[in-house]
Amino acid sequence: MINILTILLLPLFLPGLISRVKAIMVGRKGQSLFQQYFHFFKLIRKDEVISTSASFFTRAAPSLALAGTLVAALFVPIGGKTALFSFKGDFILVLYLLAMTKGVMVFAALDAGSSFEGMGASREISFTAFLEPAFVLILASLIYSSGFSSLSSILGNYSLGGNDLLALIVGIFMILALYIMLLVESCRVPFDDPATHLELTMIHEVMVLDYSGFSLGLIHYTAALKMLIYAALIAQIIIPASCTFPLIAFLLITLGIGIITGIMESLIARLRMNRNLELVLVPVSISVLALAALIAKSIGAW
Amino acid sequence: MIVGFILLILALIPALLKRKETFAILWAAGSALLGYEYLTQLFGRSQSVYQLLIPAKYGEVLLALNPLSAFFGLIFAFGLPLGIIHGVGYLRKDPQKGTASHLFWLGMLGLSMHGLLWARHSIMFLLLWEIMGISSFFAIILDRKESLKAAITYIITMQIGGAFLMAGFGLLYYHSGSFNLAMMHNMPRLPLYLLMIGFAFKAGFVPLSSWLPIAHPVAPAHVSGIMSAMMIKTGLYGILMLVLSNVFSLTEIAIFALISVISAFWGVIHAMSSSHIKRALAYSSIENIGVIGMGISLGLLGAYSGNTQLATLAFAGAFLHILFHSFFKALLFYLSGNVLLGAKSLEMDSLGSLAKRMPSTAIYFLIGTFAIATLPIGNGFISEFSIYFSMLSGINSPHLSTSLISVFMLASLAFIGALALIAFAKVFGLTFLGNARSHEAATAEKAPRLMRIPQLVLSFAILFTGFFGGISLRFIRPLLRWLGLDMRSFSMLHEIYGKISYMLILLVIIFGFLYLIRRKLIKEEINPTWGCAYQKPNPRMQYTSLAFSNPLGYFLKPFILIRQKDDKPDELFPKKVSYIQKILDPINEYIIKPISRAIYWFFSLFERLESGMINAYIALGLLFLILMIIYVLGFK
């Protein structure tokens, strides 16, 4: 129950929080924390403007993307030990559902027949090439240290604490990798600036230029939900199994991630477009390092 | 079995009389009978063994099935008639000269593929193998213009592969003294390697794969569909026959695994950078063969290290991928025929917007794209899930080698899967969405109904197996049991597929709900695409295929050979500006072409001998005789 409520209600809070933090950092008062919700409800009540070149796909894509992300979110443990659904190896389904939502949105962007949107589509989908190996490698390291099972129990079994220095280092590596993936997936600085006003420099925003109304509302929500999924994965690694109030810890960590992202966005500039992919390679190399450390330990070379 | 084969042989008569429909009906009936035989064999209800008695020392020739060949037979019995129906539709719409011979060779191709599965005698196997190569060669050259050169490349490659097989079977006979294929157990290494290489030519493993992207784009759609989805599987059939009856060392398994990963990677990056639909599909066949090879090598690894779960799931994934690849690759190749007939081109940069002109083709292609890019709902996800699952159960192995190979393959498969998504997002997006980039694409016509029937059947099969992975697992269950694999892991996989089915149904329900809300409650207003205040956008401003894959091209530069000709504007008033870019296959350019050039040079040395003067020929004959006499007497 808590899982479903969190999945439905919490996502839109994160972008609102980030922009509030950014506003405070530059000395403005900023929008209400719930502004994104107002925005969302305004959008889904509106009618749409559809491009002349749009086919059936433009009309179906946002719903399909949201459906895929929602189903993926059901497998993510939130605040407790287990997710709503779980089975052995479920994270492969999660990974491919997320890839599907991305693919579907790329199709939709190509459907508008604009040069901007093709550009965004090409950039966005190039990220997948390095994100997917990073995701499976992170899970491989977790599996290597705590056994092969479902996503929620793999994450639940892993504990940062204790006297195990190696587990701590590997855990920090993995959190870092997941955090970079979060930034890529939800298109934040330094990969993409949601506040930019020039189409040529956009990635995610340019893909949805021709969406409006109900569909745009769904797209915003999908993006926020994706961010929440990654935040929840990070939280689950940090929260120890013995935590008495896991839900509160989860909320705190999620808010912390939002605040850190906001601060980071105010402090650093975005990367040059062609350097983006190099940074996306970082999670891959971090997870390879983590895995190598674990294997080195198990064969006694540590 | 006999009735089935007789029907298929009888079908050659209407083929020669150009009775396309009768040919297709006979093929469908014959395949149904053969399919029934394969089913009963696979599920162990009957055992069919036939004996052909041939005089002289070759002895009796056994015709028999085992679960492995029955499994491949099922694929052929399902796929070949669909391909032939599609081909008949294609020939009706676009009648060409040489229909009779085309149909005849198509029939021969199918017959030899079925026959291969029954043959238990190495000479008969080789004979059918050669017939398969030759008949596919003649089937490719339907239009006899552009295709001839590519087809000749193809037949030469097949002959080289056939020569390896001939050497391998010959050595096998030398060692075992029998032509029976059952003698393949515990073979000496040399014939084993020779046979592996020979089969790998057909299957399309890198670096023996260069014929695929040359031959497939020029063949008619149904022929490339049949070849890519089914004929190259005979190579895998051969490889599976070998690997299942021999014991391999860890090094050999690792080499096989590495070749598979390289094949998959090589195929997918070229599919991604290709701008021709059929070439992208041909490269993707190399990728899928690589993925299947990864499954097989993981299975061997599991058997080697005693990890039964790893072995079972990997073989299950490989067999499922063999089955599913025959669905989605056939579908996509047949659909490329629709595109070619409708829009007169297969270059993505002159297509676009076909979803509006050919909606059913677009939907089928979308289903195929989901399958080939291993996205959920498509069946490619189901088979790769099993391969992933096997790798994940190999990670925690007590053997360091198993862990390392599993992890390496895990990351590679994720990378390859993502690249496949990029490749086919490009193919589908540029071909079917957006605005038409040429007049032909803007006025494309729908394909005739006869061509769409097999596509409908295949799309339905993809969706059905994609949703209900558990049901398709039943087809490979007897196969796994025959291999003596772990049935506990199998039922675990079955259970998980059941859960995935529920989740996919939930996905469709949520999607349908949201889509209906939008459809019912939201009004639409149609307006031009946002052009950033630019008033005259045109379709040429859309992203091109090269631009789409460019961001990753930067990383993949070492593996892709790009030749560009840049005619830059130099004067104040430039007269001509042009830019030509070609993406070439380095294996073809740096390995195959130099070798063939060297061979050509060697034989051109003997050109002078053919002078046309009789006295010169007599002199050469005399010289030869004298040399022979010296050679023979020298031994005495």
Taking pLDDT < 50 over at least 5 consecutive residues as the criterion, the unreliable ranges of chain A are none
Query: What is the overall shape of chain B?
Result: globular
How many separate domains of chain A? Answer: 1
- Individual helix count of chain B: 24
Order of helices and strands of chain B: HHHEEHHHHHHHHHHHHHHHHHHEHEEHH
End-to-end distance of chain B? 55 Å
- Please state the overall shape of chain A, judged from the principal axes of the Cα atoms: globular
Task: Bin the strand percentage of chain A.
Answer: under 5%
Please, could you describe this protein's structure?
The complex is a heterodimer of chains A (302) and B (636). Chain A has 12 helices and 1 strand. Chain A is mainly α and 302 residues long. In chain A, helix 4 (56-73) packs antiparallel against helix 5. The longest helix of chain A has 32 residues, at 115-146. Chain A is globular and about 65 Å long. Chain B contains 24 helices and 5 strands. Chain B has a two-stranded antiparallel ribbon with strand order 1-2. A two-stranded antiparallel ribbon of chain B has the order 4-5. In chain B, strand 1 and strand 2 form a beta hairpin. The model of chain B has no long low-confidence stretch (mean pLDDT 89). Chains A and B meet through strand 1, helix 4, helix 5, helix 6 and helix 10 of A and helix 15, helix 16, helix 17, helix 21 and strand 3 of B. Strand 1 of chain A pairs parallel with strand 3 of chain B.
